[in-house]
Amino acid sequence: MKRLHLICLAPLCLAACAVGDSRIAERARTRLMGLSEVDLQSCLGSPDQHSTFGTTDILTYYATSTSSTSVAVPLVGGLGLNYGGYCHATFQIKNGTVTQILYSGEKNAMLAPDAYCAPILATCVHHLESMAPRAD
Q1: Closest to 94 (Cα-Cα) out of 29, 40, 28
Q2: For residue 81, which phi and psi values (nearest 5 degrees)?
Q3: What letter would DSSP give residue 67?
Q4: Mind giving me the DSSP string for 19-49?
Q5: Which strands sit side by side in the sheet containing 56-65, from one edge to the other?
Q6: Would the pTM of this model clear 0.70, i.e. be above it?
Q7: If you ran DSSP here, which 8-state letter would residue 95 be given?
Q8: How far apart (Å, rounded) are the C-alpha atoms in residues 85 and 105?
Q9: What is the β-pairing status of strands 85-94 and 77-82?
Q10: Domain map of the chain by residue range?
Q11: pLDDT digits (tens, 9 = 90+) for 5-59
């Protein structure tokens, strides 16, 4: 009976992680907007792809996430859970400032469509939030 509880809880745990990751991606949309290109690249690193169109730069960062869990249930066989996908985080920079952030890629994380973008953004978002003045 204990194993059955663990099997039922596994998808919920994965969903909870995905929801937290999706929140990081949403916070990035406000925290990274308006940053200079230099500050953005200092925070995220060099982009995987960079294009320039006049005074507009397009920076794209790629992330992939693969994780799987297998649980064996007597008499039923095995149960496998896969949690993985990919994200492209694209930043539009006009005149040296971030003006738009778009996420594309796999959008099927349970209850968390932008969760796969979190690996790209998490360190930068946490750093910027730790530097922000606190309103007490």
Answers
A1: 40
A2: -120, 125
A3: -
A4: HHHHHHHHHHHHHSTT-BHHHHHHHH-S-SE
A5: 49-53, 56-65, 85-94, 97-105
A6: yes
A7: T
A8: 8
A9: unpaired
A10: 2-131
A11: 444 444 444 444 556 678 888 999 999 999 999 999 999 999 999 999 999 999 9
